[in-house]
Amino acid sequence: MQGYPEVCVLRLGHRPGRDNRMTTHVGLTARALGADRVSIAGDASNSRDTIRDITDRFGGPFEVELTEEWRPLVRDWPGVVVHLTMYGERVQDVEGAIRERHRDEGDPLLVVVGSQKVPFDVYEASEFNVGVTNQPHSEVAGLAVFLDRLFEGAELDREWTDADRRVVPRATGKEVVPIEEDGEHGSGEEPS
Amino acid sequence: MQGYPEVCVLRLGHRPGRDNRMTTHVGLTARALGADRVSIAGDASNSRDTIRDITDRFGGPFEVELTEEWRPLVRDWPGVVVHLTMYGERVQDVEGAIRERHRDEGDPLLVVVGSQKVPFDVYEASEFNVGVTNQPHSEVAGLAVFLDRLFEGAELDREWTDADRRVVPRATGKEVVPIEEDGEHGSGEEPS
Q1: Contact flag B54-A136 (C-beta cutoff 8 Å)
Q2: Class of residue A167 by CB neighbours under 10 A (exposed 0-12, middle 13-18, buried 19+)
């Protein structure tokens, strides 16, 4: 997110077919809540294409990549590695230290989210193993709460570039307006 | 959650088979992040059983129910109805008003989460239509951020009853300890 050091989400444990929707939701959540890119380990071309399509329509910048070799990404990451796991330290206890490294000291952040089975070396290679509760729930939910706390809500005000449409917040109903090429907003409900 | 008026999550739009995992994650996220129960519209017995199994093992109280007739639940809800949608008002703008109704004035809260298509009458029947960002991402992520903000993090300190195990937060590795019937914690790593 603009004004912050890089945040990359690494999605481990993707099983083609079975995990397509969960992986897509991990990627879209990363995008919507302030991460700069998602790297997906495994054959997730379906999810990658969906995330790219959303970025094309609703804006970026946001990058998606597939990787077979995720271990070098973790091992050689030039900053802080955080692994989200229900076995980790409580997020409320460590989020301040992580923010200090990321926002204050400028270290890029790699956020690792798995599914069922994460290899033990990920626990060892991560500077922080973090639990968004120590209860079993959802890697999507854990990532969402973690990012919202990391940015302390600033991600909700993120601006988007190269979008071709924009949703206008409304108390009732749906309003989507086209964005013209010069960057001005068109009018959705009352075309002129 | 103890000390708060009821929070019920209503999951709409469940398609058997295709949505099983998303619906399970909605339910587990509701449980882990402070809701009291989830009501699932449609034939989601698979998800219900998984959520019950987790509650049996990791504790409650938390209720799961399936419903064919969800409209009366919305129509007759004796409190505030919040519908999470990317078309809604910005969560950062309305969360204070919702907390005031829920925590301060004591109104039970119904949180409606859909999937692709939510009938228009849900928008009209909801006192608040709320967007956790106005971007497309995940109903699981939206629910998670909403609950964390609703409770202002207090849900992370929730205590659990009738669990048979407990995860001990750790900087590295996994520790799960059995909970004995008298409520004392057994020792996981160093059995006495």
Answers
A1: yes
A2: buried
